[in-house]
Amino acid sequence: MQDCKTAVCLLSGGLDSSTCLAYARRQRFECHALSFDYGQRHRIELDAARRVAAALGARRHVVMPIDLRVFGGSALTGDIAVPKGRGAEEMAQGIPVTYVPARNTIFLSLALAYAETLEAADIFIGVNAIDYSGYPDCRPEFIAAFERMANLATKAGVEGRTSVRIHTPLSKLSKAEIVRLAEELHVDFGLTHSCYDPDPAGRACGQCDSCLLRRKGFEEAGIADPVEYA
Amino acid sequence: MQDCKTAVCLLSGGLDSSTCLAYARRQRFECHALSFDYGQRHRIELDAARRVAAALGARRHVVMPIDLRVFGGSALTGDIAVPKGRGAEEMAQGIPVTYVPARNTIFLSLALAYAETLEAADIFIGVNAIDYSGYPDCRPEFIAAFERMANLATKAGVEGRTSVRIHTPLSKLSKAEIVRLAEELHVDFGLTHSCYDPDPAGRACGQCDSCLLRRKGFEEAGIADPVEYA
Lengths: 230, 230
Known about the structure:
five-stranded parallel beta sheet
């Protein structure tokens, strides 16, 4: 460990990961933001990630290319259509086609590698298990199992120097609570991008799961979302 | 699960992973081999992986580019020199600079994603915890923790359909035993590549940890290695 606490923060450019990065900065971590260009159809989120990383004072922002389309199997990377207009009940039923196989496992593994080269023990990820799409790799039991594995996988764990910690400050917050926390942390909402299926001009569709969850969160928090919908 | 058992087999092109693939084939798995172009200085191993995958009848062979050099921190991907001529005692002391941070965690995570899109539950990796370089992510306790995490990370685990299994058939074999097993499974040793630091003509150096372990294995097994040393 270095004197100054260093952390790796996964950053998609969406509301949750941006709030998570702001939270880590408030906790006085020097943050290395990590984003992935993985073949997502909403690749425009990487521009948002760049803006957010700069605005929140990340020490460095790495955008790593990793083409998950070679495996296929998701509406976010393949040719399957993104579902629109689903209600809360529908979202609660099973895992949707926007699930990307093992995505958070892959992203956390790469964050772990980055952290190890920085000799950092702290990794932040903005997963949420309340107002979410039902992805298995957002659940607290998954995160706990990943953390345990990470401490057996790396030099630091073996040499007993330090323990890897996966921080999930948003895990138990509702979307409205995340919006309120983001406001308290001065996150510039207008810089973030949540939509899975933006139009050619980059405007959010307003109807995919991610848009619907975001809109519901702002509405319940009583805060206006500056993001423009198509 | 499909009727025919499908497996994802990590394949570097070295002796161990080639033997592991041959073992999976003998167990009648239909094998999808997965290799990584990760910035390794011994990139020539990918040619070996292609030859081996074809010779052993893999259904498909995916070589995925993933540039781990963006993180640095290893003699295998960075500018640090590969250590030569180390004795067994020296190898037993601590983790060498050829360790690539979180490499097996990353490779297994990507194998997990590939397996999930194939609806396969079986992943093979040729890790060995006897005649090895002391990497933390080759140890049985790491593999067990990864397997547990994988079953919480994926659709199949959540829906209780099937359990992910990480197969490590070489884990407890000495290098000599691996050589004998490879011979029994008709692995063509001449197709494989183990050296971390080959010369421009692709010949093995004979002095890095990987070469030394390989040479010791063949010697103890009383089998001639057709690989040419510089």
